[in-house]
Write a structure and sequence with these properties.
This protein is 34% helix and 22% strand. The protein is built from 13 helices and 21 strands. It is globular, with a radius of gyration of 22 Å. The structure holds S-adenosyl-L-homocysteine (SAH), iron/sulfur cluster and FE3-S4 cluster. FE3-S4 cluster binds next to helix 1 and helix 6. S-adenosyl-L-homocysteine (SAH) binds next to strand 15.
Length: 441
């Protein structure tokens, strides 16, 4: 073992993009001779892959980093790095709060982490390294082989060039860059040979994907993946309502592997708020899109993201969101209370909504959601569902979990040997968040 090999613990906050980045980083670190540990107490190095999307996400990571750095006071050889979106947004400013940090690495510089660690260890450095953001993202890091997975998250873009007034992401991950078409298809082809059965294509505006050099669109990408042997299911997130065209809508009827489940972040049902948010679509546009999707695939499951308490949101605006909720019948929704993000346009508004009002609106939508998602999930009770088994369920001895094609989580008893395979599950019970059943012989 090399004298520069270390035990490294990585904690991930935030979205699927960050989860995949952490997986990639683990593979790169193992290749560089390090060992990944599951317990922070066993680690020589702790890396936090952070999220900035709401204030709470940053607070959690800062609290954790503060506690880790206490250990460094007793054990100076212990090293701590802040990686990911908060490192991108705040950079060296983080040293004002956490002066003992060893590394600050924005998402675009993650492939450099192994060499940064090596430099620190060999030069015995005691100052923090703040990694520069490279001009062009190096997508080849995603060609690094991961441990075999039934469901693979596949980044097709990095960053976002949209200008939503509330959102910090363009300032954490930079402008939109698209991964070369061939790199994506090659990764998926190789993963299929190693047991991957489902892919989730990831991008902040995933349906705006384009490879100009290869003259390929997002629909071309779906078509190419449809043709890969071994891949049985295709999903993507998050699409932007403005980047749907007829060719993409019809894919839901045409491509047998494209799952009938779509996460479509809408943010608000009020045209006035959508305009202030600079989302670029209207309530009517969204309703027409959902109608077109349901004409192609009547059972399509639609989920969404909504923000309550955006600056200036009146009761009437909120009622528009409530009524959109009723009109679309979302099967699932993530409801967020607006969180001002420094340097974004909306954060300087003088019409901030009081916390208590945000909370009340949040609770109203949650209760509607509870009804609509339970009602939707109950439609599966008494049916057989084809489930791709993903792993052991976190709660409950001997239980496994997987998803049906409609992206509903299904929990049942079974042997871990079944992980990675498809099984028919008879559904006995539904809650607002999952289905329960048993394997049909
Ligand atoms: N690219 C995706 C969203 C990425 S961020 C899209 O455009 O749809 C994930 C979700 O976080 C968003 O859909 C939004 O609902 C929420 N979000 C983003 N910024 C927020 C903020 N400042 N306060 C509260 N929620 C926010
Ligand atoms: Fe943020 Fe808008 Fe980009 Fe989504 S599309 S990541 S909400 S700026
Ligand atoms: Fe994801 Fe959070 Fe960054 S939502 S893109 S990890 S700010």
């Amino acid at each position: 073992m090399s004298p520069f090999s270390r035990k490294i613990w990585i904690k991930t906050y935030g979205c699927q993009m960050n989860s995949r980045d952490s997986e990639t980083l683990k593979a790169l670190l193992i290749q560089a001779g390090h060992v990944i540990v599951d317990n922070e107490k066993d680690a020589d190095i702790a890396l936090l892959n952070t999220c900035s999307v709401r204030a709470l996400a940053e607070e959690k990571a800062l609290g954790k980093a503060g506690r880790l750095l206490k250990r460094k006071e007793r054990d100076p050889n212990f090293c701590v790095g802040i990686l990911g979106c908060m490192a991108g947004r705040r950079g060296a400013e983080l040293l004002k709060i956490l002066p003992a940090l060893d590394w600050i690495v924005p998402p675009q510089a993650l492939p450099r982490v192994p060499s940064l660690i090596y430099e620190t260890l060999t030069q015995n450095k005691c100052t923090c390294t703040v990694a520069d953001v490279p001009q062009a993202f190096d997508f080849t890091c995603y060609e690094q082989q991961l441990s075999p997975k039934p469901v693979l998250f596949v980044p097709v873009q990095q960053g976002c060039g949209m200008n939503c007034s509330y959102c910090i992401v363009p300032k954490t991950r930079g402008h939109q860059q698209n991964r070369p078409f061939e790199s994506i298809v090659t990764e998926i082809r190789q993963a299929a040979q190693r047991g991957t059965r489902e892919v989730m294509l990831l991008g902040q505006i995933v349906n705006a994907y384009v490879d100009k050099d290869a003259q390929k669109t997002f629909v071309d990408l779906l078509q190419a993946i449809q043709e890969i042997d071994g891949i049985e299911r295709i999903r993507f997130m998050s699409p932007h309502p403005s980047f749907f065209n007829e060719a993409l809508v019809t894919c839901f009827g045409r491509l047998s592997k494209l799952c009938p489940a779509l996460h479509l972040p809408i943010q608000s049902g009020s045209n006035r708020i959508l305009k202030l948010m600079r989302r670029g679509y209207t309530r009517e546009g969204v309703l027409n899109l959902v109608k077109a999707l349901r004409a192609v695939e009547p059972r399509i499951s639609i989920s969404t993201d909504l923000i309550v308490g955006y600056p200036g949101e009146t009761e009437e605006d909120f009622e528009q969101t409530v009524s959109l909720f009723g009109e679309i019948h979302f099967d699932m929704a993530y409801i967020f209370k607006y969180s001002p993000r420094p340097t974004t346009e909306a954060a300087s508004s003088e019409e901030m909504i009081p916390e208590a009002v945000k909370e009340e609106r949040n609770q109203r939508l949650l209760s509607l959601l509870n009804h609509s998602s339970t009602a939707y999930n109950e439609t599966f009770v008494g049916t057989k569902q084809e489930v791709l088994i993903e792993g052991t369920a976190p709660h409950g001895e001997g239980k496994l979990f997987g998803r049906n094609r409609y992206n509903k989580k299904v929990i049942f008893n079974g042997s871990p040997k079944l992980i990675g395979s498809f099984k028919e599950i008879f559904i006995k019970k539904a809650t607002s968040s999952a289905l329960e059943g048993y394997i049909v012989d």
